[in-house]
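Re: the 407-residue chain
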Amino acid sequence: MDKIAIRGRIIDGTGREPFHGVLIIEEGRIKQVETDNITLPGDVKTIDAGEGTILPGLIDAHIHFIGSRTLDTSRWLIEPVALRAIRTVVDCETLLDAGFTTVRDVGGLGVYLKRAIAEGEIRGPRILSANKILSQTGGHGDIHYLPLDFVREYGFARICDGADQCRQAAREQFREGADFIKICSTGGVMSEKDKPQSSQFTMEELKAIVEEARRVGSYVASHAQGAKGVNDALKAGIKTIEHGIYLDDESIELMLQNDAYLVTTLAIVKRICTFGEKFNVPEWGLKKARAAYETHKKAVWKAKKAGVKVAVGTDFCSGELLPFGQNAEELELLVDLGFTPMEAIIAGTKTAAEAIQMGDKSGTLEAGKMADVIIVQGDPLTDISCVKSAEKVRFVMKEGRIEKNVL
């Protein structure tokens, strides 16, 4: 790879104030971060950010590479897998061009997409994937209005009950290439017959899954909305809480004690509340989303104020309702909630990288880390929306390779 210097106004993701400087990129990594007045060697290719802002590549810690264009989960099962897979190739390119250099697929086709990206067959972000979600019978990952045998055979979740089945299910995901395990420890908004406040999986089942993940040096993420299911997950050793809508004081204390992360996902709930009826979201989903949204916002803010580490995730799965490429809407919602723009950027870079166990490799623009770099048109500290528009993301580099350059 060529030696590359990227010069301009830098927000490095650490929380440091913006500064004018130069990133020197070599062999896919950031070799140096220097002030503007250094003299560059003649063999270095220079990229000038101009009036733009240099940032770490963005991270969405909660998406689904489903390849469907609807939230009708029955359609996910009847559409051909090959068709859905082809759509996810487009989704990968869209995410990358919007400045997302890393995403965490918490249930979907990501284990296969990441292989195609690594082979150079398609363009896309770095993907960490859980493969299939683990759900109890009748749990959030089950599709309640379809026959159980059909869901067990063709569903996007692995249905498992009892500690032994849960161990086997976890091992199956790692066998398929999963980077971590995703479970559902509560009901949810988009599952028909359960409630977000209801807890799922027993403590024995939760601990069995966590143990299997730890045995291979990995971790567990949990869809967890009600306080009981959040707290059970944390007591079992789960590292990331997805959503956390109805968390309580005990939840916050457990997250602080266990060095766990809250992954926000405000954008999906807002979009279901605002546009769900137009896109045929079932009435039961609309009702639960509308009941949850204000509580969800208060929970995220309460956790943040208490010192819980908050990471950006959207729960987007593509389509008009939840479009990939607009994932940075989550940062905008955090600012609306009371985060400073810098805090929102850190949640979508540094903290998100730490949440997905990549904090030593990415998330900030520091020497030794992978060269995941974007340049946006404008100043996100005065207008956070400039990171939301793919058109304003003018430059994308992933691990030292220039993926987009329209400066």
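The mean pLDDT is 95.
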